[in-house]
């Protein structure tokens, strides 16, 4: 079979422990849902990541970048081709006011690392459940801050595996979008410029934002985070709440009673349950308010063959 050949080719450059066949993706997504990946690759170096991207490009094999699985719903039929996860590229390097973080580092960890060096500007990210790569791709933001406020440049791989550096302007960052998603780039690292701050003030802000997040978000259940983008002039969670949808859902998936913008995996939900709940929410909000909710999460993979 093709995937056996892909495996053999990939382990010429990667440690076999970092290349797996038929890996269950529910082990790697924050929703704890999803079928298997034909091939699952976790490179340990930028060169290994580049080799994987180049190999998939040359062989015309579908390639999906998983990030840390926080903003993605993987269908129950899994993913054909290669799934790339850069969790082992997770170094954080601080030099004065500049910070370089590799793609697989969790942005929460980067936020805490810079805070401990008395640098201010990334406090807003102390509760964002994503990797640097995902944060760059989505121009992640929270509590009045966004990646575009602090980014200097980012090193990425093109779809053919060429390494290029994109300046802040090149990145074309907007509300939950960037050139990265538009062109299908793979983030390797990002460089930020922060400002010296006062330790007590930084710590107080992080404590406050952490409290706000923990008290308002259903972190006790698996989820894909905030499901919908903010519609112009509205808040998605408020529209869903006002539609009386909290506690409603399909199978083991449910609109959170704690925060209506979240759909949780309450009881062994399948991806089909989760996606059906998303569609139900969109339909009801459209009917009640004539607002078309747009997904912030990405839905990938194959449906189960019936």
Offer a concise description of the structure.
InterPro entries: FAD-bd_PCMH, FAD-bd_PCMH-like_sf, FAD-bd_PCMH_sub1, FAD-bd_PCMH_sub2, MurB, MurB_C, MurB_C_sf, Oxid_FAD_bind_N. This protein is α+β, with helices and mostly antiparallel strands. The chain is 30% helix and 25% strand.
Q: Structural class, from secondary structure content? A: alpha+beta
CATH architecture of the largest domain: 2-Layer Sandwich
Number of domain units: 3
* Oligomeric nature of the chains: single chain
**Integer-rounded radius of gyration:** 20 Å
User: Taking all residues together, what is the mean pLDDT?
Assistant: 95
Helix content: 25-40%
* Sequence of strands across the biggest β-sheet: 6-7-13-11-12
How many beta strands in the DSSP annotation?
18
Any idea of the CATH topology of the largest domain? Uridine Diphospho-n-acetylenolpyruvylglucosamine Reductase, domain 3
Major beta sheet summary: 5 strands, antiparallel
What is the CA-CA span between the terminal residues? 23 Å
The stretches of 5 or more residues where confidence is low (pLDDT under 50) are: none
Shape category: globular
Number of helices: 9
